[in-house]
Amino acid sequence: METLTVDGQTIAANEIVGTNLEEILLNLMEHPSTSGRVIRRIFLNGEPYTEDVPHAALEVPRATIGSLTLDTLTMEDMGLNFLRTGPAYVETLLEALGKIVESFRLGDEQEANEYFLNFLEALHLLMSLLEQTRYVLGLWQGSDDESGSSLNQYLESLAELLTNVLSLQEQKDWIYLADVLEYEFQDSLRKLAAILPTLCHGGH
Known about the structure:
Helices cover about 55% and strands about 10% of the residues. By secondary structure, it is α+β, with helices and mostly antiparallel strands.
């Protein structure tokens, strides 16, 4: 590795150990220059780099890395960025939910359940990011949504709804499950999309 740059600042490549890209990135995030920051973008040998599958960076040997450039964000900026972009992420979940409902109603339970599993994984990621953002921005008290419920109350209601949905899936009550997903779960996600931008003003 010839050149290593973080936010425009050059770091001596020999300061960072690692035999592959993943190890290098992990060690970089422990470097004093990146303390309290998260990676926003990676440029590998001058080209944008993203992982197609988890841990794909393990398959990128150090010897193939000529240059590595990182753009980072503070944890606070990451949280605010999530609150701004979160509604778009929720919209993709709503689109996926529509396809799941259609598959259940058409009687294609196997396909619907496969889609639903992917949906739940994406929802779990969204909730994890929201939890991190609440902590970083000090949003433990939450912010009132349009119905007057706090963020905490909203998340509790979403958790109850999710429990009900999983119970219906376990019971294989596909038509009722489709109804709950369409009329209750979609409405709940739309409320979340409306809440997220308002929280930008609730942090410290």
